[in-house]
Design goal:
alpha/beta, 231 residues, 24% strand, eight-stranded mixed beta sheet
């Protein structure tokens, strides 16, 4: 059953998409979107997680600015719309929203209480920040933009973290990637995988840089990690 739910956060209520597996209760994965909002790609990611036996939940991170954002990755006006939202997004408030989502989902009757956070681009950064600032069970970050600006928070990282970086990422320079790898190399609970020849968002369904082989490798690693940490 795939549906919409409302999260009662400390700063207000916001919507989320939820995909439920056949067998409940189940561990949950909170999926954090890119600049395009809870769009078809993110909903499909939740559905795929449900097929793997997880509750897949995607909260609306842009609810303060514009609730219900659902943008197309193939539309230039939608890209510009998403970038405007991204630039104005309050990341500190957003981390609180993610933690509120985790808390709410953990209490659902259909959840075992185990919850991971998984994000892409903006969502990848938010997954990293949530793991660094709050206690969560696990975090997965796909090409989190601006992560290098927050490496001072690595010391707070207690949760297991899996990070995927595309070596040719046009939004995360190779220098930034080197800084991220160096900072996380000191954390035994953090694993960073690098994908040679790949561009930003190489796992995005129907994305311009989608690469089936690299996506299968990265998503397989993610699935194994989530099953290890949440079961």
């Amino acid at each position: 059953m795939n549906d919409r739910i409302t999260i009662q956060g400390r700063d207000g209520a916001f919507g989320a998409y939820i995909a439920q597996p056949k067998t409940l209760p189940a561990p949950a994965v909170v999926v954090l979107h890119e600049v395009f909002g809870v769009n078809a790609d993110i909903r499909k990611t939740c559905d795929e997680l449900a097929e793997q036996g997880f509750l897949g939940v995607a909260p609306d991170l842009f609810w303060r600015q514009e609730p219900g954002v659902d943008l197309s990755v193939t539309s230039e006006p939608d890209w510009q719309h998403g970038l405007r939202l991204y630039k104005a997004y309050d990341r500190d408030a957003g981390v609180r929203d993610v933690k509120d989502t985790v808390n709410a989902i953990a209490k659902l009757p259909g959840c075992t209480g185990k919850v991971a956070v998984l994000g892409y681009c903006l969502g990848g950064l938010m997954a990293f920040l949530t793991a660094a600032r709050y206690g969560i069970d696990a975090a997965v970050a796909y090409h989190g933009g601006d992560t290098e600006k927050y490496l001072g928070e690595v010391a707070g990282l207690k949760a297991p973290l899996l990070m995927h970086l595309a070596e040719e990422d046009e939004f995360i320079s190779q220098a930034a990637q080197a800084q991220i790898k160096a900072a996380l190399a000191m954390k035994p609970n953090a694993t960073v995988y690098s994908y040679p020849g790949q561009n930003h968002a190489f796992t995005r369904h129907n994305g311009a840089h989608y690469n089936a082989a690299a996506a299968k490798l990265a998503n397989g690693r993610t699935s194994e990690f989530l099953h290890q940490q949440l079961r």
